[in-house]
Amino acid sequence: MTGMLRISLARDTEEHLQAVLGLMDEARNWLAFKVADQWARPWPNRQVRDARVLRGQMPGATWIVWDGSRAAATVAVTGTPNPAVWTPVEHDLSERAVYVHRLIVARDYSGWGLGAELVDWTGLRGRRLYGARWIRIDVWSSNTALHDYYVKRGFERCGTCRDPCYPSGALFQKPVSKIAEPAAPLFSVADEGKLGTVPPPHRGAD
Question: From start to end of the chain, where are the E strands?
């Protein structure tokens, strides 16, 4: 690590798109080694997946954690649910929530607690910006090790996506009130002036 990491909004540039896709490809290769099928194939195909990731950067929903010029992690954050995944039948969607997507940490930063701090940061930011009560995440259905990780982080299983073809269909949530500010943050925020932006709606699977 070259110094304190910094987090900033991804821009709709080829450089930032490739930074996010590179993190996804690295995670996919590592997960294959761990005998997990998450991201084994771009969903539903690479062209659509790449376009979806780029769209997520254009409205300002995607954040990248940088270590110098290197992308160390990324997360996509939205303030409204994907209606194909979160339905009012199983969840009270009138309650304000922040929705986390595409959380990825480069393998060289494994063990730093960077992913956990990113999750907490999104929850605290959602509460600060628009009074979010919940932090919610849809998790790859077959990655039970990741399910256990979120449970250990205080999340509760809260349903399943009704579309059986949707790959990230295990749903978890946690009250933002249970998140504490970090005593020694791993990253600083580069785009302070943009912290007042409410994250836009999610537009598809990761």
Answer: 5-9, 62-67, 70-78, 97-105, 134-139, 156-160, 170-175, 187-189
**Structural domain boundaries in the chain:** 5-186
Neighbours of 183 (CB within 10 A): 5
Q: Taking the model in full, what pTM does it have?
A: 0.82
Residues 6+ apart with CB under 8 A from 3: 68
Please name the helix (run of DSSP H) or strand (run of DSSP E) that holds residue 157, with its range, or none. strand 156-160
CATH topology of domain 5-186: Aminopeptidase (3.40.630)
Query: What is the full per-residue pLDDT of the chain (206 aa) written as tens digits?
Result: 556 899 999 988 889 989 998 998 888 776 655 545 555 555 566 666 666 666 666 667 899 999 999 999 999 998 989 888 898 878 888 899 999 988 999 999 999 999 999 999 999 999 999 899 999 999 988 889 899 999 999 999 999 988 888 888 899 999 999 999 999 999 999 864 444 454 554 444 45
Tokens standing for 101? 């997507």
The Cα–Cα gap between 43 and 102 comes to 13
